[in-house]
Amino acid sequence: MEDQRDMEKPILTNRTFAELTLGDTATLTRTIGPDDIDLFAALAGDNNPSPQGQSMIPAAMVATLLETRLPGPGTLYLGQELLFQKTIQPGDSITATVRLVGTDPASREAHFNTEAVNQNGEPVLKGRARVKAPDSRIAWSENEPPTISLQRHDRFDAIVSEARSQPLIRAGLIHPCSPEAIEAAVEIRDEGLLEPVLIGPENKIRAAAFKAGIVIDDFELINTEHSHAAAALGVEMAVAGKVTVLMKGSLHSDELLSAVIAGGPGLKTERRISHVYVMDVPAYSKLLVVTDAAINIAPTLDQKRDICQNAVDLLHMLGIEEPKVAVLAAVETVNDKMQATLDAAALTVMAARGQITGARVDGPLAFDNAISLEAARTKGISSVVAGKADILLVPDLEAGNMLAKQLLYFANADAAGLVLGARVPIILTSRSDSLRVRITSAALAKLVAARRTTAVGMSAKGSQS
């Protein structure tokens, strides 16, 4: 049975050569959106800071008219002469027109005058086109053109720029015994972010550097017997203030974090440590934090409070004064059979009572109404957080890990990662991370470490006075 939607679409037909009449005209009008010029530049490989792709938009509109309207499908382009008379800007309304001015029966050629004007009637383009008109009738249903959007990954730029502007700080790179770990050390140093101290078995580190084709003589290298000893020494150096950032090399995350949270005078604080993904999602309007998707498997309510506060404090450091935290669940109503909704409701009240500070917290919220205003309105949700979340606080590690990876692979997001809640920030890198992500993770760690050093200094000065 024919789809009712297809039956409602208008039926269009082309014009064969025999049906053409001098003076036949077709027009097309469209408003130039903010992405259109950049899209044409991207297609042309034009990376000029001020791309000139706008010249081609009215030309493409003329081609669209000839190939889809007059004469239409079956038309063969033979030649085109164009004179560009005025540049266009986003927001301009451009009307393109083609007018038949001559034909050649022997060759079935049709000659058209072409022009495009803006909303003020000012000429943007003039020219002539020569085509070979079709000799048979074609009918088709008019379909909506595909929706195209540009994916920009520029939200990390300000973070990296600010981090570069500050002096280098020392980072303990734990057990860098793979070529990838050595390459990461060079990257973050050459970017002006961190000064890595290589901690681990010297023979393995040098073998990895040789395999990577990198000379490491200008790096400080501290020899240890194995990865456990490297992790323990890195923590000791952080406690002593000899490094202000820890970074995972080629050892398991659990091995490094176990040393961090070991008993005694170490790096533990009163806070639960947690992991944040700071994500640049092209389809979202701002940075988005997902937590915790890497460390806490099934956090309790108190642990979720710490996870939330860690993420909030990070965004404060990035200049967001009052982050909006959406506490996620499968539904947006409290259900006593779904622990995630009970925890979300409790966290909302805890924020209102000052147990979570510096943020607007609301939950339970489902993912759609946490990040989409339209979805929130459709469900009648009135909230300062719904549709505008800065932080997505997930129910458990499994949900967070799946959400983060869906954003990475389906939404083409970038995700810089950091461990918070210890006395120094900890970078957990992955071999699959892009250079951009590794650089941003290091930049985040540098900013966190620098702000904490400043805060400690101010606190000490205040106590002395």
Which characteristics define this entry?
five-stranded antiparallel sheet, alpha/beta, elongated, 14 helices, six-stranded mixed sheet, 465 residues
Task: Explain the overall architecture.
The protein contains 14 helices and 18 strands. With 465 residues, the protein is an alpha/beta fold. The strands form 4 sheets. Strands 15-14-16-13-12-17 form a 6-stranded mixed β-sheet, with helices on both faces. Helix 5 (179-190) packs across helix 6. The mean pLDDT is 89.
Task: Describe the structure in brief.
The protein is α/β, with parallel strands linked by helices and 465 residues long. It has helices spanning 4-8, 36-44, 56-68, 157-164, 179-190, 202-212, 227-239, 253-260, 301-317, 339-352, 367-371, 373-378, 397-409, 435-464, and strands at 11-13, 25-31, 76-84, 93-104, 109-117, 123-132, 139-141, 169-174, 194-200, 220-223, 245-248, 274-280, 288-291, 324-328, 360-365, 391-393, 414-420, 426-427.
Mind summarizing the main beta sheet?
6 strands, mixed
End-to-end CA span: 85 Å
Unreliable stretches: none
For this structure, the quaternary state is: single chain
Overall pLDDT = 89
Based on CA atoms alone, the radius of gyration comes out at 30 Å
Q: Report helical residue fraction.
A: 25-40%
Q: Structural class, judged by helices and strands? A: alpha/beta
Principal-axis shape: elongated
* Strand order within the widest beta sheet: 15-14-16-13-12-17
Could you tell me the strand content as a percent range?
15-25%
What is the tally of helical segments? 14
Q: What is the tally of beta strands?
A: 18
